[in-house]
Specification:
Elements lengths: L2 E5 L3 H13 L3 E5 L2 H10 L4 E5 L7 H11 L4 E6 L4 H10 L3 E4 L4 H27 L8 H12 L6 H13 L6 E4 L6 H10 L8 E5 L5 H9 E2 L11 E2 L1 H4 L4 E5 L6 H13 L1 E2 L8 E2 L3 E6 L3 H6 L5 H7 L2 E4 L10 H16 L5 E2 L1 H9 L5 H15 L4 E2 L6 H4 L12 H8 L4 H19 L4 H8 L3 H10 L4
Parallel strand pairs: 1-2, 1-3, 3-4, 4-5, 6-13, 6-14, 7-10, 10-13, 15-16
Antiparallel strand pairs: 8-9, 11-12
Helix pairs in contact: 14-16, 20-21
Length: 472
Amino acid sequence: MKKILIIDDEVNVALLLSKFLARNGFDVTTASTGTIGMEYLKNGNFNLVLCDFRLEDTDGREMLKNIKTQYPKTGVIIITGYSDIKMAVELIKMGAYDYITKPLYPDEILNTITKAIDTHHALVEDKESETAGYDKPSTSSRENKKQAFNNEFVTGTSKVSKELARQIELVAPTNYSVIILGESGTGKESVAKSIHLSSPRYNQPFIAMDCGSLTKELAASEFFGHEKGSFTGALYTKIGHFEMANGGTLFLDEVGNLSYEIQAALLRTVQERKVKRIGSTKEINLDVRIIIATNENLQDGIQKGKFREDLYHRFNEFSIFIPPLRERGGDIMLLADHFLRMANQELSRNVTTFSPEVIECFMNYRWQGNIREMKNVVRRATLLTEGNEITMKTLPLEISNFKAPIYDYSPVAEMHEIKENRHDLKNAALEAEYETILKVLREVNFNKTRAAEILNIDRKTLYNKMKAINIK
């Protein structure tokens, strides 16, 4: 069980955070001052420290310096208010893993903590293996990791989900770089992790990096690391994400947000498979598989001069598209049941089912936020439910009041011309085709994937035909 120390002089915050983390399987200790926290660190082997930036007897800067000096194997996350974010960024340069801002959100906290512990565990293993040799994990290691992953994520049973699973199984054993495409909230990091766990690198680090949150000033240090004293504020040596992921997989989310200068540096690293920390002359050989994700059209970025074409082709050895949830009708209630089980565990509830009205609502709703939106909706509903069945009154208004949009199916001028000349066999065939497409789309509530299956055409062809009759 991973051990976490919370240092925060706000007793209520520390208590709530402690209970939440304990329910999620962590061994948690709390301290109300920096002095007490350091005493606990002296007597316990903690994996991670959550330290409030403003304490009664000290501050986050001083605590970080002490912890990194005395307990370098222990990761540190800074808890801060919005007014202290600039300082929190400086603390990251000093060696903190990350920062989280108040008010605290459970999903954000759990995700950040999990990544921090995994990252620091991987670094410690790598450093120890340099001198002591590396013992390969037992044969059950892969299955244990996969089981933990499957407990958190669920694989769908719809046709598109099965195709997605097939592509993951196909590319995972290779060393191909992969681009994962899809709307925000579709689970791109989950797919990346599934590829990693199904690959020969499963027992090596999986390091995830959110490129969307990087400033131009921080990006180089985060990617490549830096040496102590290499720039103002570099009080400690920092290992970059490439070095952290060496031997394993580096997942870069929202890569389209990177500046053009960083893209150039990234290209050199990917091409040469070597990295050099800022302020160092030593090159480190890399063996890293790269998986990137984006909800933007990188080819449009290339045309607009915002994304390097050579870097795109380096990444695009294999691409996977994750369809939006609204096109995965067969998965909707499977996912809802999965998130209900997770919410019950998190909240210590015993909600067992959804009302028929809620099921119908879920199946008709458009889920613009995809899987992430559904997870939040189910968690909220579970919290508000008094009995054992989730009802409509527990859903957000934008979902409970949702009505399927009524489209104006006015065909374009070409369609009018077709109808004007019904005796022309070609036009008559086109009219029949358009009417069949409209009929099927209405029957499946405009689920394009399902419509394409029924019509026995691919989705691209369906989109082109829909465009021809003015359906967006």
